[in-house]
Amino acid sequence: MKQEIDLRSDTVTRPTPGMRAAMQEARVGDDVYEEDPSINALQDKLAQMFGLEAGLFCPSGTMSNQIGIKALTQAQDEVICYEGAHIYKYEGGGLFFISGVSVQLLPGNRGRLEASQIDRYIQPDNVHYPRTRVVALENTVNRAGGAVYSLADIAPIAALCQERGLKMHLDGARIFNALQATGEAATEYGAHFDTISVCLSKGLGCPVGSVLLGRAETIRYAKRIRKALGGGMRQAGFLAAAGLYALAHHIERLAEDHRRARIIGEDLAACAFVEEILPVETNIVISGWPPRSFSKVGAILP
Known about the structure:
The protein is an alpha/beta fold. It is 37% helix and 18% strand. A seven-stranded mixed β-sheet has the order 1-7-6-5-4-2-3, with helices on both faces. Helix 8 (175-182) links the parallel strand 5 and strand 6 (195-199). The radius of gyration is 19 Å and the shape is globular. 48% of the residues are buried.
């Protein structure tokens, strides 16, 4: 009996029986009053995992990204990011609408920026220009086929930002895919980034949710922003319980996703009608089909 598998995106997953059971049994409270034990546990666990002080549960990765940028900027500031970054391409113009910031878009090596490249585009202190304030990275890079930043790639960028007085935000929509690919420790990320958005509803298979991580003071301010955006939910611990289950049971399973994506990539590369295929590092496969427009196969849509 044939089974159809939806490969459009890693957002079309369904909760496993174990995750459903964890959600059913979740302890809940009023999260706006900071009284939901499941949400508090998820926020604390992720903050500890990534070496930062606090976390804030949000309904979506778009919201946690936009809150993170808003918390680090003022109107008339500028954000430097990859020209295909999710925060710019797929978040409804939120950088302009919510934060009132300009964006400096840079080409990347399969979406990955380098410190020397960023350095050239930091604005001088001149009233004619916006103030460069934040460098935003994405790991893995969606539009570049799931390309991975290693910590060795990130460290020089972080050093430049510290030297030039800039903040750093990480769109970690697929950060656990990156960690699974590199074998690196999540705890080291807190030394490099001011805010990190960790999505739970992609590779980890949760139905809803993302957590913004940062220093305690930043997260206190971020909570005000979340409230204004309508992201302050009440008994949302049922959703947080799915995240706690995923962190305990689903991270290692990402290696299987990566293995299967490589098989799809190899099979596509053997097809005569496929003109180009990007290297498959994680769970995203992007191939070029006639008439030379990229078709997307696998877990790759925003």
